[in-house]
Specification:
By secondary structure, the chain is α+β, with helices and mostly antiparallel strands. It has helices at 2-24, 227-249, and strands spanning 25-36, 42-52, 63-66, 72-79, 88-97, 100-104, 111-114, 117-125, 136-141, 147-153, 159-167, 170-173, 176-179, 181-183, 194-205, 212-224. It is 18% helix and 48% strand.
Length: 250
């Protein structure tokens, strides 16, 4: 009986320590996507460790902090073959995320914050990026994406980019929308929790057909157990199994 008590205590301790660790830091995998109009999205995969709920313990998701440079690409090429978006013939993206800080209530739609997307999207006109027939490029700065603000670029084509913070609610540009969310609602700050944040990117130009170019950025995070947590849980469960076998032999 004493061995069984020790094994149960070890298992409970494992769960307790795991819960404490997960309330502070959690590993995650995910992606940062940028969707410009009807073009194929640029997807930046990444993985790292997030600080979840600070030191307040487990429960409803109340805060997430992400380090910079988790998601990054350099000169990522997206070919464009859809004739409806002519003269756009290609897109090249060089970007990374800045540090992110999000807070609110994970059990509702009031969760969000700021994480800048640092870099630029080069829209290649009349020819694929880098080709000899590519005669003009449109540089779209991304710095205001995910944190708010406005930046204007003057040139052969004038454009203005307006950004906004991230949200788990609905991001909208005109009638186009993207939805964020958390799952499960009761405790997203836990292993296997999912968090989706969205932000609108309003792009306007002096080209009639592209006077307004709607775009969105989408951040997906999937929290995963830490290796140390799995070891603790495995040790406790193994203890229970060993005790059960010992009692069965008697």
């Amino acid at each position: 009986m004493r061995k069984l008590s020790y094994a149960v205590a070890a298992t409970l301790l494992a769960f307790g320590l795991a819960g404490q660790a997960q309330a502070v830091e959690l590993g995650f995998s995910g992606s940062l996507s940028v969707q410009i109009a009807t073009l194929d999205p640029v997807v930046l995969p990444g993985a790292g460790t997030a600080t979840v709920n600070g030191s307040n313990g487990a429960g409803h998701l109340s805060g997430v902090q992400l380090p910079a440079d988790v998601f990054a690409v350099d000169g990522f090429l997206v070919p464009v073959t859809d004739p409806s978006v002519f003269p756009i013939a290609g897109v090249a993206v060089t970007a990374m995320n800045g540090a992110g800080a999000f807070e609110g209530n994970g059990g509702s739609g009031s969760f969000g914050g700021q994480m800048p997307v640092i870099g630029v999207t080069k829209v290649c006109l009349y020819g694929a990026c880098g080709s000899s027939v590519n005669i003009s490029n449109l540089e779209v700065p991304l710095t205001v994406v995910g944190q708010g603000g406005q930046v204007t670029v003057m040139g052969a084509v004038n454009l203005t980019v307006i950004g906004a913070p991230w949200t788990t609610g609905t991001a909208a540009i005109g009638t186009l929308t993207q939805m964020g969310g958390v799952s499960p609602l009761s405790n997203t700050g836990a292993p296997s929790g999912n968090l989706t944040l969205v932000t609108p990117i309003f792009i306007s130009t002096n080209i009639g057909a592209f006077a307004v170019v709607p775009a969105f950025a989408i951040l997906n995070l999937h929290f995963v157990p830490e290796p140390g947590t799995l070891v603790l849980l495995g040790s406790g469960i193994a203890g229970l199994v060993a005790v059960g076998r010992s009692r069965a032999r008697k």
